[in-house]
Amino acid sequence: MAGKASDRLAWAVGVLNVAPDDRILEVGCGHGVAVSLVCERLDGGRITAIDCSPKMIELARKRNAAHADRARFIIASLEQADLGEEIYDKIFAVDVAALHRAGSALEAARRHLAAGGSLYLFNQAPGWKRPRDAERFGLELSAVLEGAHFTVERVLVGHIGSGLVAGVVARAST
């Protein structure tokens, strides 16, 4: 399973196209694998990683101890995270269902997204056998995002070692 997650997270971080000075928020960071991949690309930028599970945050902090100057960890859901007035260039989540439906999580993402910033949502489902299955998910998620005042820029389908993945890239509508 770790290999599968790593494939999926490496693909997602590749899509993010992290710039050295990016301000990034990861929702649902789990063990912190994506945080490590992002930190390797940052030089002056920072990542804030949140997860509802204290155990996951503890593991993510340990995994990323060498990146303490670039990574901050918060135990909370996106809706409950005390992010203050923080604004992010990129917000991303992998397999976080709360961001796949209209509601307070998407509202919070919109509120913390910088002007011109992007929201990246990724998912992988074991039942996807054909690229159009993943694309259908992307199109359905696009409709949700558009209803929550985002403008969808791209729907992506990736082929990784463990199967198909989908991604949607959106910006907050003005």
Task: Give a description of the structure.
The structure is a single chain. The protein has 174 residues and is α/β, with parallel strands linked by helices. The chain has a single domain (2-172), classed as Rossmann fold. It contains 5 helices and 7 strands, in the order αβαβαββαβαββ. The protein has helices at 2-16, 33-39, 54-63, 104-111, 131-147; strands at residues 23-27, 46-51, 71-75, 88-94, 113-123, 150-160, 163-172. A 7-stranded mixed β-sheet has the order 3-2-1-4-5-7-6, sandwiched between helices. Strand 1, helix 2 (33-39) and strand 2 form a beta-alpha-beta unit.
What is the SS-derived class?
A: alpha/beta
- The CATH homologous superfamily corresponds to Vaccinia Virus protein VP39
Count of helical regions: 5
3D shape = globular
Parts with pLDDT < 50 across at least 5 consecutive residues: none
Mean pLDDT: 94
- Domain unit count: 1
Q: Give the helix proportion (percent range).
A: 25-40%
**CATH topology heading:** Rossmann fold
CATH class: Alpha Beta
What is the percentage of strand-forming residues?
A: 25-35%
Largest sheet: 7 strands, mixed
Which labels suit this protein?
globular, 174 residues, Rossmann fold, alpha/beta
List the helices and strands and how they pair.
Elements (H helix, E strand, L loop, with lengths): L1 H15 L6 E5 L5 H7 L6 E6 L2 H10 L7 E5 L12 E7 L9 H8 L1 E11 L7 H17 L2 E11 L2 E10 L2
Parallel strand pairs: 1-2, 1-4, 2-3, 4-5
Antiparallel strand pairs: 5-7, 6-7
